[in-house]
C-alpha cells in the first residue's frame, strides 16, 4: 500500500513518512485567498480533484512536482502541508495496536465480500478519512500472519484478499490435501514403486505427482542429478522420505 | 445350584417381602426364573407357560405372533439356561397343574422350588399338605424359608471396569495415518494404536499376498468386507481401513476412501461387529417369539433374505460345545455364534413343539403357512421400531451385497495399480 507521500530525502530517514493533511491544504488555500476553482485552474487540474484532495482522497496520484507547485502557490513548504510529526501515523505493528478500529473496519470488509469505496466506508462509520486509513493500515498488519491482506483498487476501493501461497504454505496445503483425500492413482503408483522397488527417476513419473508428493514431504528429489534419465540406471532417483517410510514401510 | 432335579417344597408364612426377594433372585443368579402365575379363577398350564415367559424377562408389549404360549415356554426352557424355577404362592394353583409343571421343568433339567405359604403350623392339617405330598412323590423334600435364603444368597457383582475414554483417531488417509497418530495422540495411546496398526498391516499384507486366481480386486474387497463387518466401533473400523490402505499399496492395489462418507456410514449402517457393543441379542431376547431373533441372526451373519424362508429344520445344526450353530443356507453354511445361535435353537424347538418334523420349514406364519421374502424383510424392519435394534439398513435387499458393493456404501473403492511391482525403478 503506498498511499503516503515521501518528502525529498525521506529515504534517508526511514520511517519518516507523512500524509498530506487535507485540513492544512484547505487552511493554506483560504489563508492565501484562493477559491477552489481558481486554484485548481492555476494547478491545471479540475476543481473536483482539488476538492477530493482537501477531503483526503486522491493522494496516491500526487506527484512531487504537483506538490511543489501546490506548496509554492500557497506560499508554504511541503512539510507544512503534511501531518505534524507527532500525529503522523507510523506503520503499526501487531503489538502496538490497541484501538478497536481495525476490528470494526475488518468486520465491515468481511461482510461485504467486495471492494468498498473509502469514502463510503468513512461515511458509514462516521469516521474521518485519515482514521479509516489508519484503521486499514493496522488491519493489514494484523491480517498478514493469517494469510489475508487488503487489496487496493486505485487507492479508492479496498477489499479483503488472500495472500499468494508461499512455498511453506504450499507444502502445508499439499500435505493436508494428501492427508485428507489420499493419493490419486499416479501418486499411489509412485509411492508403491518407491516403497517396493526403491528409488525411481522422477522424469519417468507424473510431474504433478512428483511435485505434490515432494511438497507434502513424502518423496525426496533433492539428490537427483542430471536433467534426463537417459536410461542411466546408475543415476540417483527420487526416494521416500523418512516420513513416508514411517507411514508406508513401517520402519 | 441343584444337586438333584427333585422338586423342593419351601414352607413359609405369608410374606410380601419373600415374594419380592424371590422376584429379585434373577438379578443375582442368572439361571433362576420366578414363575409368578397371575391369579385367575381356574389356572391351567397356559397360565403357567405365560408366567414362565414373563419370568424369563420377555416384554409383553413388543410385537408378538399368535404362537402357542406353551410351545414358546418349552422352546425357551430347552436352551438350558435356566436351572431353578421358583413358583411363589404355589398353593393357589391346582395340584394337577403343579404336578404338570414339575414334570415339564424336570424334562428340561430344571429344579422346581414350590413356595407354599401357610399360617397353620400343623403341616398335616394345612391346605398345603397335598402339595408337600406331591413333592415327596417326586422324590423331593421340604425346607424352610431360611434354607431357601441360604441357598440363593445375594451376589455382589463386581462393577465392570469402564475403559478409559480415549480421543478419537485422526481422520486422515492411510498414507499419513501412522505419522498423524504419532503427532496427535498421547504417547501411550499411540503405542497401543501403533501396535494394532502395524499388526493389522502385516496380517493384511500376508492375506493379500495369498490371493490367487482371477479378479483379485473382488477377492480383496470380499476379504476387506469380512474384516470390516466384524469391527465393533468406528475407530476400529477406521484403523482397519487405514491399515488395509497401507497394506494394499505395497501389494499393487490402491484403496481410495472418502473419509467423511466412511465415517458417516460406519456410524449409521448396521454391521455384525456392532451387535456386541450395542447389545443386539439382549434386546432381541425381549421378544417372546424366537423367530425375530433367529431371522435377525441369519441376516446378520450373511444369509440372503431370499434364502431365509427356504431353510428347513434339518438345516440347523445342534449347538456345538461353544454354543455356535451352523445353518445350511443355499448349499452353503452360515456359522452363527452362541449369543445369536440360541435364537435358532429355540426356534427349532418351538417348531418341534408345534408338531413340525425335520423336513418342515424353520419359519412359518402363525397359520403355519410358508413365509415370503417380504415377511422376512418386515420382521427385520420391525425390530428397529420395537426394541431399537436395526440389523438391516433399509431398504432390506433380497441378497446381501458382495464385497465391492458393500465397500462402496462406506465410500471405499479398490483399484489395481497396474504396473507397480515391476515399474521402471532406477536402481540405487
Structural write-up:
- The complex is a heterodimer of chains A (251) and B (428).
- Chain A has 251 residues and is mainly alpha-helical.
- Helices cover 47% and strands 7% of the residues of chain A.
- Chain A has helices spanning 22-31, 36-43, 47-54, 64-74, 101-112, 118-125, 129-143, 167-181, 185-197, 207-215, 242-249; strands at residues 116-117, 148-153, 157-162, 219-220, 239-240.
- In chain A, the strands form 2 sheets. Chain A has a 3-stranded antiparallel beta sheet with strand order 1-3-2. Chain A has a two-stranded antiparallel ribbon with strand order 4-5.
- In chain A, helix 5 (101-112) crosses helix 7 (129-143) and helix 8 (167-181) crosses helix 10.
- The model of chain A is unreliable at 1-18 and 225-235 (pLDDT under 50).
- Chain B is α/β, with parallel strands linked by helices and 428 residues long.
- In chain B, strand 7 and strand 8 (332-336) form a beta hairpin.
- Classes of the chains: A mainly alpha (251), B alpha/beta (428).
- The A-B interface holds A 175, 178-183, 185, 188-189, 191-193, 195-201, 204, 218, 229, 232-237, 239, 243-244, 246-250 and B 172-180, 182, 198, 201, 245-246, 249-250, 252, 254, 256-257, 259, 415, 417-421, 423-428.
